[in-house]
Structure formats: structure tokens, C-alpha cells
Recover the amino acids of this structure.
């Protein structure tokens, strides 16, 4: 009996800890699933009991950032930086939260954040020579900031080249971004093409295609996206091809075939709803002067989404043919 009571007491003592651990683990699962409203109260309760638990502070800072509550995010990240000044990750997140806060306030107030943003980003880069994200942040920071308050293409290129030593494809993409921002279109095109040669990811093709669209080269954008489709075989690219064909009145047959393939193989992961594919098909048939067929497709788009404002305007244009 004595042993049984001892065992019972031990179980009673251990049970709350086990349940707490299970609850915390569940909160981490919620966080990974981006169910932040469920994770947050668990983390907050845990932090009250363990006020110096850094991972919980980081989780809560991240959740605040997701909600665009930059003041709260900054509070959590500052505590972390003060606790561990040698963590590149904490400096990066603190600087990033300040940067996002600066974008939401007046320019005069934003200027007061620049020195701290620069310090924490550069400190993160020094502490972790392989930190890709902070180098991308520094590229954007220096290239977008006016020269009068610290902007510098030279420094942006420096961090782009550091990126290139860590990840060649990121280096080419970063240099392409800088060249595009600085109105050096030929250099941008060259860097984006290099990124495709080295990496060949869907993102590299997308950057080059977007560059062509911005520079009024829709034919090249269409060709680039078509090449990406052959390599990556992602259904979403069928929509992109159809969109370019519709917007710029290019290769109607390719556009129609691509949009029909998109509709046939559509799933939620493709991102763009089918009503937009119907809308693009209507545009293509309008471009071809086939009014009746264009009306069929635009009506299909409106049947799917009656408040589709772009489709309503497109229908007016079709009826005016």
C-alpha cells in the first residue's frame, strides 16, 4: 500500500509537467501550421511561468510580426538581442521589425530608425557570414534608401557579391535587382539570365519574365515563361502564359491552349482562381474579334464571381465591339 501511494503521488507530481509539455508542443505545431491565434495564448501563458524562455519570446515576436504589430515584435526582439548580443538571427529579426515599422510611419519619423536598422542588419551579417536573408535585406536597404540619408549602390553591390559567394544564384538575382533599380536594364537582363543558367529555378525564370514585362518586351516574357513551363511543368505557369498572351495580344493559340490546360488541371495550390482564366480567355477572343465566344467566357467568369469588377468592365468592352 505504501508503495502504491508513493507511486500515485509521483504520478500526480509528474502529470502537470507532462501536460504542459504536450500543450507547448501543440502550440509549436499550431505555429508551424500558421494557426497563430491558437498558438499565441499558449506561448503567453508559458512565458509568464518562464519569463526568460528565449524560444517563446521569439515565437511571440514572430506572431506579432505576422500580425504586422511591429511595436510588439520589436519589444520581444529587443529583449532577445539584449539577452544574446551574439545571435545573428535576433539582430536580423529586430532590424527587420524596425524596418517594417519605418515603412508605416512618416518619412521624418522613419529617418530616426535608419541608424538602428543599419546597425542590427550589419551586425547580423558580421556574426553569420552565411546568413542569406540579412544580406538580401542589406541589398534592399542600401539600394532603396536615398543617398542623402545613407543609401549606396556600392554598398548594395558589396552585399550582393557576398550573397554570390554563399549562393551564386542569389548573387546574380541580387545584382540583377540592383541593376534594374538603378536603371541599367541590359545589366539586369544579363544577371537574370546568369541566374537561370546557374540555378534554373522557377523563381529565376519569373524574375527574367517580369523584367521583360516591365521593359515592354512581352514577346520575350512569353518565351521565358514558356521555357519555364517546359522545365518545371507547374500548372500556374499556364495561367501566366495565357495572361501575357491576353494582355499583349500575342500568340492567341498558345494563350488559349495554356488557359484551357490551366482550367483542366486547376487546384487550390495554383493560387489564381479559375474565374481569372475565364477572364483571360474572354480577352483573347475579344482580341481576335470573336465577340460571341468572348461573351461566353466573360459570362462564365461573372457566373463564378458576380462581383468581379474587372470582368464587368471587360464585358462592356466586348459589347462595344
Amino acid at each position: 500500500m505504501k508503495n502504491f501511494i508513493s507511486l500515485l503521488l509521483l504520478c500526480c507530481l509528474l502529470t502537470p509537467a507532462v501536460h504542459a509539455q504536450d500543450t507547448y508542443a501543440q502550440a509549436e505545431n499550431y505555429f508551424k501550421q500558421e494557426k497563430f491565434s491558437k498558438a499565441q495564448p499558449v506561448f503567453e501563458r508559458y512565458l509568464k511561468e518562464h519569463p526568460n524562455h528565449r524560444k517563446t519570446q521569439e515565437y511571440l515576436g514572430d506572431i506579432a510580426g505576422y500580425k504586422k504589430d511591429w511595436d510588439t515584435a520589436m519589444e520581444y526582439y529587443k529583449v532577445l538581442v539584449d539577452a544574446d548580443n551574439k545571435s545573428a538571427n535576433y539582430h536580423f529579426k529586430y532590424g527587420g521589425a524596425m524596418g517594417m515599422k519605418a515603412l508605416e510611419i512618416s518619412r521624418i519619423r522613419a529617418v530616426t530608425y535608419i541608424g538602428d536598422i543599419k546597425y542590427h542588419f550589419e551586425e547580423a551579417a558580421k556574426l553569420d557570414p552565411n546568413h542569406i536573408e540579412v544580406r538580401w535585406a542589406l541589398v534592399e536597404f542600401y539600394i532603396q534608401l536615398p543617398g542623402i540619408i545613407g543609401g549606396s549602390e556600392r554598398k548594395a553591390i558589396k552585399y550582393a557579391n557576398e550573397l554570390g559567394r554563399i549562393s551564386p544564384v542569389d548573387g546574380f538575382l541580387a545584382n540583377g535587382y540592383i541593376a534594374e533599380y538603378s536603371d541599367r536594364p541590359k545589366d539586369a537582363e544579363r544577371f537574370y539570365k546568369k541566374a537561370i543558367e546557374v540555378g534554373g529555378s522557377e523563381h529565376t525564370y519569373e524574375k527574367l519574365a517580369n523584367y521583360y514585362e516591365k521593359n515592354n518586351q512581352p514577346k520575350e516574357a512569353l518565351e521565358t515563361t514558356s521555357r519555364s513551363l517546359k522545365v518545371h511543368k507547374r500548372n500556374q505557369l499556364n495561367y501566366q502564359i495565357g495572361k501575357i498572351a491576353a494582355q499583349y495580344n500575342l500568340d492567341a493559340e498558345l494563350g488559349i491552349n495554356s488557359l484551357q490546360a490551366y482550367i483542366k488541371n486547376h487546384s487550390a495550390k495554383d493560387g489564381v482562381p479559375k474565374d481569372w482564366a475565364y477572364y483571360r480567355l474572354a480577352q483573347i477572343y475579344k482580341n481576335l474579334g470573336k465577340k460571341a465566344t468572348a461573351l461566353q467566357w466573360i459570362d462564365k467568369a461573372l457566373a463564378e464571381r458576380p462581383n468581379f469588377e474587372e470582368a464587368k468592365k471587360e464585358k462592356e468592352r466586348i459589347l462595344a465591339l
Summary: The chain is about 80% helix and 0% strand.
